[in-house]
Amino acid sequence: MNIQTVINGKKISVNVKNDMRLLDFLRDELELTGTKEGCSEGECGACTVLIDGSPVNSCLVMAFQIDGKEVVTIEALDEDGNLNIIKDTFLEEGAPQCGFCMPGMVLSAKGLLDQNSNPTRSDVKEAISGNLCRCTGYTTIEDAILKSAKKLGGKNG
Amino acid sequence: MDKLNIVGKSSFRVDGIDKISGRSIYPQDIKLKEMFHAVTLRSTVPHATFTLNTEKASKMSGVVKIFTAHDVTGKNEHGVLFKDHQVFMDRKINRIGDPLALVVAETLKEAKVAMKEIEVLYNELPGVFCPLEAMNEDAPKIHGDSNIIANMKLEKGTVDFSKCDVVVENTFKVPMVEHAFLQPESAVSYIEDDKLVVISSTQYPHWDRFELSLALGLKEENIKVLNAAVGGAFGGREDITSQIHVALATKTLKKPVKITYGREESFLAHSKRHPMTIRMKIGALKDGKITAMKNEILADSGAYASWAPSVLRKAMTHSTGPYEIENVKVNAKSVYTNNPFTGAMRGFGATQVAVGYEQIIDQLAEELGISTYEIREKNILRIGSKTGTSQTMYNSVPVDRCLEAVKKEMEIIKKKPVNKDMLTGYGIALSIYGTGYGNGFPDVSSNIAKINSDGKIEIFSGFTEVGQGAKTVMAQIASEVFNTSSSNIIINCEDTDKVPDSGTAAASRQTYNTGNAVKKSCEKLKDIILNLAQKELGLNNNIGLEVKDELVYLRTLPSMEITFKDLFSKYKDELSSKGKFVAQTTQMDDLSQGAPYWPYGFNALGVKVEIDPATGRINVVDGVFAQDVGRAINPRLVEGQMDGGFVMGLGYALYEDINLVDGEIKNRKFSSYIIPTAKDMPTLKKIIIEDPEETGPFGAKGIGESVTIPAAPAILNAIYDASKVRFTKLPVTPIEFMKKFGNKYD
Questions:
Q1: Which residue in chain B has the smallest CA separation from A28?
Q2: Please, which residues have CB within 8 angstroms of residue B328's CB and are 6 or more apart in sequence?
Q3: What is the CATH code for B272-438+589-744?
Q4: Which fold has domain B444-582?
Q5: Alpha-carbon distance B506 to B509, whole Å?
Q6: Residues facing B260 on adjacent strands
Q7: Which of B386, B397, B390, B448 is nearest to B694 (CA)?
Q8: d(Cα B89, Cα B66) in Å, to the nearest integer?
Q9: Contact B196, B247 (CB under 8 A)
Q10: From-to residues of CATH 3.30.365.10 in chain B
Q11: What is the sign, positive or negative, of the torsion defined by CA atoms of B385, B390, B395, B400?
């Protein structure tokens, strides 16, 4: 079917198969391979993207379901500058190890910070509780998100 | 030691921003023109002979070819120690998940549809799933005429418990668990000129090339292995999985081929952590001095040996913990069963035995009426101590400092308010981990350091960045020698055509072994540069010449200088140097006496747990972790390992268990195999203990495995403190907790 959607700020009109997952549409059709597939059942969060600002597991969404919606992936150009600040802070805090969970983590972080500019550590844990990481123990990721909030708060205020 | 400029600083990861931005390329991200897709048909029964009928499937739409054992062009076998795996089965199925065939099709969907049409007729054989039963003479045999892969003994002094004032014994059971790296296995192969190229995520590209050459019947020089980004490994990427399959298809079809496993197949395909039954008996004198220990270890290796003897050796030699005990006797066995095969996983046998020795020492303290700190202080290894293998600890043995740091912090933690609705407990654990392959095995790393045409320093070494930060560490070591920023060092480690073999990213050996090779080669290259600069600058010797930021200058007259780039334009071929490092270990004797590993790393961990007495839910709410690192090349990376190792150990203690029914993994999804989330992770205070190791690069030791070992026993000791129930079987799930805790009051 034909869908109208906005991917990373770009309007597109495209035909998608009824049985295609959003994850496959992004990775195979648009070659946006920053979105990762870790479990295919919505448990690990490696495929997290933002749909109309909310973090969603793209393995559980069909491509046609993004008709009329806006999708942000890790490859998004950083129009408001927030994404780059989050990415830089992840680097500063030493958040990545193997890296496979990172794009999903960054987008869950953006989803949180766009809604809540002053999260507590407990808010952060809740926000990334659907993103599994086997390497880091999550601490540096939480630190990076809390520090990003401060930086963004500073920027916005 | 001279002042260090780069080593000891938390430089940003060299691969960091690409990973954060989704730009790092894992094999599943690769798409080539005219690329076929392949899926693996795996056995659904644990022990059987079988026949395959691929006729119908091979005629299905899009199918290019179905590969079976007949199509293997070299030897139909592989394996890290013994060649007991088959590329495709043709003799006998030994476990659920054994590869039977590979369907190659134009699209992934077509390959999957066709695979369902392959007919498999099984002639099932009786299986054996219990390692104890597997040792019976009449048990079904997996390979050959005995299921016992290894039977080892260790004897030091004479164990005589009648001479002890207090004796304690217990049996500990630790489960089979899964690495659960986030990136499932994937591999892509293609032909480039006359070479077969295989891209995968591996812990050891040179070993993969060797195994590929045997199975494909190709010379190693005709194969190139490229290591893509590796999405976690923890030992689970040491045994080869999809690489031979994909390469065989490309070799035969002359087209690019790709294989990517889903999560369930990943659970089936790679090794697991050895489940072990560990029987321990320990005796001490009234004053708390431990004088005797006797341990028996039985490990289930599943259907294949993988690293069974090596894991067992590490378990056996580490079963006395970081303690000096005069009289020790250990027997350790590893056996084949029809269960999933087990192999390397973070800690490699040393993780399992710590669950025993760190609990039994707490039991001993209780019997003696002394504190858990005091018993450890009385028995820990110190400079001059001898281990259970009679190896002398001659430098960098800061067990005491680790323990002291944790003791101090735990006093603070204990003063914090407690939740009165919960059972609260505090527990500590120490651990020991010996680096390297060990036991005299040649443990070699190599590096070539070069200056390139831009005057930049390049290092070439076949180590693997699995997420631990090896690329950043090697860059920091090189930049320290050359007095330049680590971002100026160009790292080459992924391509077997370009880099020398540096062994596995395993056994916590990369920082120590490859770090030493990098340092040696860089120091030699620096000498070459100084001598060439002396010549170019017309000096009568090279004294006082120094390098900084790709420039050589005379310290007494800094205007006298020459750039690396200028030197390259004249001395191109001379600006290269090789460095090699071989770890010093000896082969142990028949009673397992000798110096099997070096160096040893230590740590201490203290935790506070809260248990909901109504539900049995256990939370680790606070903790302090002191880790001996020799010297921290990059403190932030060290802390990242400490956090990550801890949480993996937490999963081992509280959640993780491969649920096997007649050899079948029932929980092969993240919805049923539970690994810790951010909500499970407490704030952990991390203390880095530096006590430079004389033979380490700038004094550094590896810590990748050490960091996971103390978590489970510390948590179990805290659970005991809270509930007065000693859990000897992992994991302590809420149900398991309530079963024993509830019974206490019955």
A1: B31
A2: B154, B155, B156, B157, B159, B292, B293, B294, B295, B320, B388
A3: 3.30.365.10
A4: Aldehyde Oxidoreductase; domain 4 (3.30.365)
A5: 6
A6: B186
A7: B397
A8: 14
A9: yes
A10: 272-438+589-744, 444-582
A11: negative
User: CATH homologous superfamily of domain A82-156?
Assistant: [2Fe-2S]-binding domain (1.10.150.120)
Per-residue confidence of chain A (157 residues) as pLDDT tens digits? 999 999 999 999 999 999 999 999 999 999 999 999 999 999 999 999 999 999 999 999 999 999 999 999 999 987 778 899 999 999 999 999 999 999 999 999 999 999 999 999 999 999 999 999 999 999 999 999 999 999 998 654 4
Extract the tokens encoding B263.
């999560």
Candidate CATH numbers 3.40.50.300, 3.40.50.620, 3.90.1170.50, 3.30.540.10; the one for domain B27-125+182-232+237-269:
3.90.1170.50
First to last CA, chain B: 63
Check CB contact of B679 with chain A, cutoff 8 Å.
yes
Instruction: Annotate A18-41 with three-state secondary structure.
Output: CCCEHHHHHHHHCCCCCCCCCCCC
Token representation of residue B70: 């007949």
How many Å lie between the alpha carbon of A13 and the closest alpha carbon of chain B? 24
CB < 8 Å to A89, chain B = none
Distance CA B207, CA B223 (A): 12
- ipTM exceeds 0.90, yes or no: yes
Q: At what angle do helices B399-415 and B372-379 cross, to 10 degrees?
A: 170
What is the identity of the amino acid at B672? S
CB contact at 8 A, B190 and B246: no
**Partner-chain contact B16 A129, CB within 8 Å:** no
- Collect all residues with Cβ–Cβ distance below 8 Å to B75 and sequence separation of at least 6: B83, B214, B215, B217
Contact: B182, A46; criterion CB under 8 Å: yes
The tens digit of pLDDT for each residue in B167-184 reads: 999 999 999 999 999 999
B295: β partners: B280, B330
Instruction: State which fold the A2-72 domain adopts.
Output: Ubiquitin-like (UB roll) (3.10.20)
Q: Which residue of A has its CA nearest to B669?
A: A39
Distance, CA of A79 to CA of B78 (rounded, Å): 51
pLDDT tens for each residue of B568-621: 999 999 999 999 999 999 999 999 999 999 999 999 999 999 999 999 999 999
In contact, B479 and B6? CB cutoff 8 Å:
yes
Q: Flag if B182 and A101 touch (Cβ within 8 Å).
A: yes
CA dihedral B553, B558, B559, B561 (to 10 degrees): 0
Flag whether residue A60 sits within 8 Å of chain B, measured between CB atoms. Answer: no
Query: CA–CA distance from B298 to each of B113, B278, B316, B324, B336 (Å)?
Result: 42, 7, 10, 24, 11
Burial B335-359 (b: 16+ CB within 10 A, else e): bbbbbbbbbbbbbbbbbbbbbbbbb
Average pLDDT, chain B: 97
User: String of b and e for A118-130 (b: at least 16 CB within 10 Å)?
Assistant: ebeeebbbebbeb
